[in-house]
Write a structure and sequence with these properties.
The chain is α+β, with helices and mostly antiparallel strands. Helix content is about 45%, strand content about 10%. It has 48 helices and 35 strands. The chain has a nine-stranded mixed beta sheet with strand order 1-2-21-18-23-16-15-4-12. Strands 17-22-19-20 form a four-stranded antiparallel beta sheet, with no helix packed on it. A hairpin with a 6-residue loop joins strand 10 and strand 11. Helix 32 crosses helix 33 and helix 37 crosses helix 39. It is flat.
Length: about 1400
Amino acid sequence: IKPDEPFPTPILCHSRLNEFIPPPECPVFEPSWEEFADPFAYINKIRPIAEKTGICKVRPPPEWQPPFACDVDRLKFTPRIQRLNELEAQTRVKLNFLDQIAKFWELQGCTLKIPHVERKILDLYQLNKLVNEEGGFDAVCRERRWTKISVKMGFAPGKAIGSHLRTHYERILYPYNLFQTGANLPKATLTNDTKDKEYTPHDLPQRQSVQPQETCSIARRAKRMRSEVSCFKSEPGEICENRPNLRRRMGTFVTKSEPGKNNDTTDQHVDQYMCLVCGSGSAEDRLLLCDGCDDSYHIFCLIPPLHDVPKGDWRCPKCLAQECGKPPVAFGFEQASRSYTLQAFGDMADSFKSDYFNMPVHMVPTELVEKEFWRLVSTIEEDVTVEYGADIASKEFGSGFPVRNGHFEVSPEDEHYLTSGWNLNNMPVLDASVLTHVTADICGMKLPWLYVGMCFSSFCWHIEDHWSYSINYLHWGEPKTWYGAPGYAAEHLESVMKKLAPELFESQPDLLHQLVTIMNPNTLMNNGVPIYRTNQCAGEFVITFPRAYHSGFNQGFNFAEAVNFCTMDWMPIGRNCVGHYRQLSRYCVFSHDEMVCNMACKADTMDVDLASVVNKEMTAMVEEEEELRDKVKKMVISTSDYEVLPDEERQCSKCRTTCYLSSITCPCSPGKMVLSLPHPQSVLLSTQQPYTPVSLHYKFTLDELYPMMASVKQRAESYKEWVRNVQDILENKESKKRGLEELHSLVEQAELHSFPPPNLVDQLRAVAFEADKVAVMAQQLLNGKRQTRYRSGGGKSQSQNELTVEELRSFVRQLDTLPCNIRQAPLLKDLLSRVDDFQRRSEKLLSDDSPSPQELQDLLDVSLGLDVELPQLPLLRERLEQARWLEAVQQASSRPDDLCLDTMRRLIDQGVGLAPHSSVERAMARLQELLTVSEQWEERVLSLMEARPYHSIETLDAALQEVDNIPAYLPNCLELKDIVAKAKKWLQEAEALQLGGRIPVLDSLSELVLRAESIPVWLDPLSRLEALISDVQMWKESAAKTFLLKNSTISLLEVNGHIMQCVDSNLKKEKKLHKSIKKASTKLESLCDVERALSESKDSASAMTTLAEVRQREMEMLLALRASNESKLLPAENCCALSVCVCQKAPSGAMVQCELCREVFHCGCVATTVELEYGQAWLCPLCQCSRKPPLDKVLPLLASLQRIRVRLPEGDALRFLIERTVRWQHRVQQACTEGVLEKVSKMVSGNIMFANNSGPPYFNDITQMLDELLVEGFLLQVTLPETEQLYRYLLYKLAHLPSHSAPTDEDQHPQQTQRGSPHHVKVAIIMMTAVACNICLILFLSFFSNFQVNWVQCDGSCNQWFHQICVGLSAERAEKEDYICISCTQPDYDRGE
């Protein structure tokens, strides 16, 4: 909408009854980045349009997306409870009226039930109102206006609805209205139709006076009209069950005992109670006792008399008038009984909305939510309760916008949001906002408030404090629907709401200031109030303007933030608001006078336009203060300065206004009664004396206020003086010509004080800019800097030109036309004189035949300080180039070591481009001759180096002697000299390598041969060394065929360390074991370390030491791996969680176990053991890394290596392997000699079993020694008969242990357990593993084979299951006999032990 277009006035078109019609949309603005940069300038730009609607919406540029910075983890709030139909003004009036009717009938012992008419709930409030407007019940009956009333209530005429309305009115409302007139009631009973529905009172005063319970239901949709039969009946003959003994007849009444009296008897005489009407105590069966005050009445003495004693509760006329005449309590929101986190509130909100509309929250149309909201707030039949997290202090939990020094870490690309004017933490305190002069941090005004909404949660009609602006930003979530009225319609809106709901304003005059009441926008529009709406989506701002009433509700779960701000146009509005607050006796949020005085104290830096506004405010304030102080001058007996008191202690007792400039107090009650100066008569009324002295307290004396007002006025008028000075400069009066500094001073004043109008400032800037250019150019000329002008050359190319001497003279003359003086003008004439001197010197120097390069350069240096075009410069530069070239040739010839071919060619090329000269031609001839000789020798030397076969070292030496006489730097000749030196050095090393019968190391030989390949000289010992390396390679191939498996990927040296590498990779899965191994050894961590250590060893002894360390580490790692793998097989709660085999899956089916690493494998994942003979150990693929040849095949390899006489790491490893094998054989023989095996065999045959390895120490030591001996035998990469013999011996002696249980399936099926079968070998290995690990054998077999397990259940008290073989039962005994476990027979038995 353009600013000059009038905004359309909303017109409400009538549609179907009670259907909500959305008001017209408010304006929506989408600023550009340039407009968005200054928020207050943009708001001032759109204000002419937006203030006509009261509210507007601003969509920031799409790229403006500030991060959400609120501390979600700390945010915990207690929301407000909102019952929707209690918010709407007219609906609340109806509910209050129905509550009064229900209370009236409840005191009469009856329950109010609202009847149905034409299938609709009868509107008793409207019926009562229309009857009163028509003159009352008697007048309507007399003039037969019931049909007219039925038509006004929306019923169709001609259906005899009027008679029904009369019946309901006479039955329900007429007794209440008759009571209101002060007359006694007729028969106080209420007969209800069975179709009428019970009304449940809201009890607003009682509910708001107590804290809500923790189990308060939230957002529950319930019907207010209940069809169930009331628990409190009013029909004759029935007794109320839930209120016993409330209706009492005097004949059976028992009095209450009074304190201090001895009541021996409970029966009292009836004649002690007298009827208050007739004064008699007779007819006790007709005497009633009031349940409120215990007064007694005869039923026939009441007016009109009662025919029967009423049932239930009964109140006398006096109590009835007292109960129904209580004043209403001010309405307000309740706090919820629980606190929410943001996530918990969001879950509740989304669940409520999806359940209410029976669809996902994002699919509910906004139009549907809007219509349903206004339907719910206007009905008395349905109660919908929601919660709203409103007015949450951002100072406590953090703003949604990022702030400096906050908990939220802002990324570098988002740092500009910290200082953005649209950041709601910054907007109230920007320079353009007058709220920055309010010293206090006011929550909600200067500090943003946070709002967490849910579907239907609403904010009621209100205007901002002090009629200020407000801005609301929706960070995220579902939309927020707004309604607004322009500021000029504020009083009209207030009058309409007071007219339509006068009952609310009678009890609460400041109702609209409490933010607890809404009214349907359609109702307001029907009464002439212009209303506009909008839907605020996430990432959008909504701005409300001064005194613009606004309200709305949330479409769902969202998070918004709002704050107030005030611009200079608000200042007079704010002062009028304070006067309005004074009339309403409402407290001020801050002192308007204090803000004006704070602004006046900063008059020197105040904006000029703001100073003009503050000047008016200051003048009005001081004049009013003068007048008021003059009025109370006669009453004042003492004066004193204000103490530093907070605002709440300086509020007027009469009008509640904050007293800032001055106040009066009565001496009789100092400090208790503070009055502002407009209320001195209140002191007289309080003391009831014609003259009462008072004390005057003031913040400033009038003598202090006058200078403050004068400084603001001076600031406002300083602009006029500035305008006069600018006009004098622009007129360029010769007599008033000023300096450039004064011109800049005026520009700085305009920028500093933001002087209007912009066009005058622009003219001043243009003049200053032109003068600056002239001054800069003059200064550059004086400083000797080059000034460049770019003139278009007719295309993309641009030519650089300097000022000519004539242009310089013209530039000096231009200074006289400037409107100001520049200080460089006197110096420019001196520049012109220096140019003339340069021209004279250059002519003299050019006339010389052999000028000096230094003199030429000095003259050219002088020209650099003359920023003008000089015609002598090209000739001077040409002569300078010739002189410098000759000097360079002379310097190069004096240093032959640096005179390379490229330098000679470059000098020749440079000389060709010079102007002809005799000295230049002679130098060119000498250079050309030297270049020719040098190139010839470079080619000859290159051919010597590239010749095949290579030349001898003597031939190359002879050529080098001839090159030494050439005075130049020749790279090929130097390279040849380096090659000859390398060849001589290589020959010396080759002779020293085998000097004295040394055995060379393979790496040294290989390195020497490799170096020889890069020396292009014939070397005699090279062929012999190459043959020696070829023999070593053939030996390595033979050793690889002997040891390595087919298609093996490991090297010969890695055979010894491969087990260590495999163990290390497996141990990494067990972090604790891997760390312990790492701590134990810090060297030789990998095969690379081993190979490097062997290569660096000086002799075979050090190599053997290194390999011994490798062997020690290998054993440590393998033993740790075996322990780790065996520990996995211990009984566990969840055996399926084990990861075994190369596939890392749980055990299943037939399994086989490696004898070296003790890992268990599926038979299908590895090579099966069917081909193995009984007694032959099986090793997994990771442990079987070589062929393991017999020892007799390994020994010839060592002998052939000794004949070659070359030392290599593989040879050292082979030598260590043979020595290790011999030592192991010796240990085995020693064990057999000492009888260790026989001792173990005797222990096993004697059935010596020790659980958990807890046997005698000597047994554990022997078994550990044998285990390590067998492991080391498996580690040897050769095949030995002792290894197989030791393994078979242990297998035969330890595999079949005596059974301690009943006969097993093995006894029944001997043919399946023959010794020679492979299956028996696997089972034997598994049995050994189970016994060693203390695992239930049957459970172990169930994991690693298809072994079937039979179970038996305890017939005792535990009902546990056991393996039959574990408890020593056969299948036949388990079928025939009861089995009771040891835990049931011996309660003290611990199975774990």
